[in-house]
Amino acid sequence: MRHFLDIDELNMDELEHVLDLSSQPATTAPLAGKGMALLFEKPSARTRNAMEMAVVQLGGHPVYIRPDELGLDVRESVEDVARTFACYHDLLGARVFAHTTVERMAALDAIPVVNLLSDKSHPMQALGDLLTMRSELSVLEDRTLTFIGDANNVALSLAKAAGLAGMRFRLAGPSSYSFSPEDITEINASGADVEIFRSPYDAVTDADVVYTDTWASMGKENEAEARMDAFQEFRVDANLMSAAGEKAIFLHCLPAKRGNEVTDEVLDGPQSRVWVQAENRMHTARGLLTWLLEEGN
Q1: Which of 34, 55, 69, 182 has its CA 20 to 30 A from that of 207?
Q2: CB atoms within 10 A of CB 275
Q3: What's the pLDDT tens digit per position in 49-66?
């Protein structure tokens, strides 16, 4: 049984096919009369709306489940929850704190599991990002993607996605918030070479894409003050985008902390593609689910 826990679980041909499916409107209804369980330990605007609408477009019924309805490993084990959902649904999506939660669900092979976000990875975001970059740049191979900020779950999945697409990946941020040696090993295995920069201006030189995320991701709020101090030199503003060049596009997975990691003039400026990027979350969800239902399993 195929699952989707991180972007590098797809090979290059499968990834290209999923992106092709995502570029097309739904022409079949593989979920007609069927459901998808959507478990959210963490709330989300884009992920919930993207997934629910993708399921509807494929003819199915999405069921949103709050964490207090389950009590994972308190009221019922993660494994028993997955087995229960398999009785009713054809797919299970889970947005969780710990990556081990989706790994445990997938290990049962009771139902295809889609990782909607974990502390380690955000593969659905990476899919949407690739579709956005492909539609904007046409060809991704040999393009340069620069990520400014924290080497978090978004950055890790994005780096792997860049490797699969034949892109160069750069990271600029404080040394204490960089990729671990284990992260680098995983990224290299996907085919990507990571360049680490301490100067954001050096990192964006000749970049095709400039990408950033919040300095304190969900679950890191207690570190917000320390992170605010550490990342002051890594704000994406008009001067930094100017250094990248007028052809570079700007991406952000959202929600944005305006004035922190990015200024209003960039987020709302002519180089920004963040709203196209947000919409593409729905299209790539539809493409991935179609592939899982019709070809992946």
Answers
A1: 182
A2: 11
A3: 999 999 999 999 999 999
